[in-house]
Give the backbone structure.
Amino acid sequence: MGLTGRMLTVGIVGAGPAGLSAARLLEETGRARAVIFEKDERVGGKSFSTPRYGSMHDIGTCYSMLAHATTNRWMKELRIPQRPIDRQMVDGVPVIRYILGGKPFTTASETLRFFRAWETQMRAFEERPDDPDVRQTAAMPVGDWIDAHGFPSMRRYMQRGLTNMGYGYLDEAPTVQALRWCGPDLLISGALKRIKAPEKGWQNFWERISQRLDVRLGQPVEEIRRGNDGIDIVTPAGATRVDALLIAAPLDELMHALRLTAAEQRVIDAVKWDRLCASLAAIAGWRRNDDIVIYEDALKSGAPPGVLLSSRVAGPPPKKQDRHGTRFFMCFQYAGSLTNADLAAKLRRDVEQRGGYLDHLAVQKVWKFSPRYDADALRDGLISQMRAMQGDERTWYTGATFSFEAVSNIVEFNRKLAPEMVRQLEAMRR
């Protein structure tokens, strides 16, 4: 506890992976408690799972890897089993062979060089964010960074790990964001087949995490009043006084409730959100044993919105198939500005081109996904500005904008943020 003996209270906006992991990590310090406000009637955010046809299907967050050290530990503590995701193909070629490009020894040497370059670059982003050259590199499209270092195999690795996962094309994604995700842990996880998924779905995991937390569902934040001695968070249920505010929802979704600071407005202006479509589809004619099939044409820059990125077998094979062999697959598309109907039509066309028939869509979800930093804002010092605003007006920030869209990045960000928040808040009391 702090010097006054009173537990700190942190109000958190958003009960997705960012808000829930931050709450748990704050409470693990033993010096703070969290109150979480969520506008929806469920927890999990983009960790959304639905039970269909005898199995649980993840429509948002999909995998866990070596980088998910904290959530893997929590799953172990909660005795949540995970199943492996083994067979991954790119147009009929195993992913690892696709990355190797037929030159295993050359690629092994290139991978070691990539690891060294990645470590050097990430250290520069961390330690020298105000260096003009570092800012320029941060803003550079990651495809240019790859080419400048001579990493042809790593280009294919990033097409699999970045573009296929919905995080953007290599000629668009800024290097500072792409390297946060596409590092050694991701590559090693794939090579060692350490990619898994919780058997009952990611949403179930976050529901288990939330059971010991003060989560207030169906409570959209209507107003936030920030003062020197505390913050009032106003919802339809009334006002709650807290010592500090942690914003785990996209900042632009709170513009109606906050008197924005100049720094907050800069972040909103500097971020462009993409849209990713995830569909649980009943498809006939696809008789295959591969867990995931990725389509190479969709990974290349310039691919039109709506093209099928990948398909994942959804659940175990049915005990008895109909004569058409209908099974359920998770299918992913960059949505662009397309309507749901347009996306469904394009999916139907791509399925037919690959020998299948789209019987129906059980679930179609279009996510606000993967915020991308503006290149000019990065060159003007956006990263330093985002760090400097942490704690201003008793407000901290987390989530996809401040770390990366992936759960592993968000939780690791919070693992460092939570004790620092407590330290600063206790210093204010002295």
